[in-house]
Amino acid sequence: MEWKFKSGIPIYTQIIDEMTMRIASGAYSPGDKLPSVRDMAMDAGVNPNTMQRALSELERKGLVFSERTSGRFVTKEDSVLRKLHEELARVYFDEFAAKLQKIGMSKAEISEQIRKWLDEAE
Q: How far is the C-alpha of 56 from the C-alpha of 24, rounded, in Å?
């Protein structure tokens, strides 16, 4: 998987965001063993300490866990993954709604457009 970093944003936070998306999207399935820190750092073109810092934060958030001699794995906890999906959906929806309100749409109009879209998507 390709890594693309933007300037002006700390790389470790971009790694956290990218890994979070990979976990949420299923690119890394629940229970998958992650590559080693060194392998991931080499693949991303970053210092292993940077990758370690990002993975430690993902572990703190409960998205990955370590097994002492086996490495890191994606969480198998459905509740953690469900919460992740809800949090990401909320962020994306808030951004979406804010943009629509910025172009002058009311909450009622946004709600109606979402209903139409859902009906058409079925």
A: 18
Q: pLDDT digit string (tens) for 64-78?
A: 999 988 999 999 999
Distance from C-alpha of 33 to C-alpha of 90, rounded to nearest angstrom: 28
Instruction: Specify the DSSP element, H or E, that contains 13.
Output: helix 11-25
Note whether 68 and 108 are same-domain residues: no
Task: Express each pLDDT in 103-119 by its tens digit.
Answer: 999 999 999 999 999 99
Asked if the structure places residue 3 within a domain, the reply is no
Number of domains in the chain: 2
What is the span of the domain harbouring residue 111? 79-121
Please choose, from the candidates 46, 80, 42, 41, the residue with its C-alpha nearest in 3D space to the C-alpha of residue 60.
Answer: 80
